[in-house]
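Try this one yourself first.
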């Protein structure tokens, strides 16, 4: 007995409701085919690596941990414009802007700076939109193997300026290497 049906695409299909034989109803052929696939995988080369002695090559589009950059003089680039927080689809970035005081002139480039800058790493999806939205090139996602470290408390995953700002010695070293070239 066969039934002719029309699918949503408009093509006709013929469906048959024939009775299965005794061997077909035991599904032995299907089980044997499945076991053969499993046995083939037992003799394939393993993809496991011995971490940390061996490491895999990173993808060219890899995005690591966030870093708030400094300029050549060691001043923070962030002006607390809030574009990174607005562009974040996960709403993981929060900041508070303040006016720079005269005695803080050596710390910040502009008159306004981010006194509080936090990223909730549990919410962050590492999309890189914050990096693209920043007009001052103040936030970058590192290309190195710097990853978010594991922790047991949720509060440990809220990264403030203490964990995000580029170390001062790294900013000075970058300036020296640029001057040498």
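Now uncover the answer:
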């Amino acid at each position: 007995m066969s039934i002719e049906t029309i699918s949503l695409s408009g093509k006709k299909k013929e469906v048959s409701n024939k009775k299965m034989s005794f061997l077909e109803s035991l599904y032995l052929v299907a089980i044997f085919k499945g076991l053969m696939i499993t046995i083939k995988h037992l003799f394939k080369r393993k993809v496991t690596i011995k971490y940390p002695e061996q490491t895999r090559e990173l993808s060219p589009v890899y995005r690591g941990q966030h870093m708030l950059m400094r300029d050549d003089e060691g001043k923070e680039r962030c002006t607390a414009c809030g574009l990174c927080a607005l562009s974040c689809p996960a709403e993981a970035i929060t900041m508070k802007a303040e006016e720079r005081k005269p005695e803080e002139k050596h710390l910040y480039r502009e008159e306004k700076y981010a006194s509080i800058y936090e990223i909730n790493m549990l919410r962050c999806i590492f999309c890189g939109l914050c990096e693209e939205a920043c007009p001052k090139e103040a936030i970058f996602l590192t290309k190195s193997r710097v990853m978010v470290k594991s922790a047991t408390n949720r509060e440990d995953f809220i990264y403030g300026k203490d964990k995000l700002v580029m170390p001062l010695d790294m900013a000075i070293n970058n300036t020296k290497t640029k001057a040498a070239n």
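Discussion: Helices lie at 22-26, 28-42, 83-87, 129-133, 161-164, 168-180. The CA atoms of residues 79 and 113 lie 5 Å apart.
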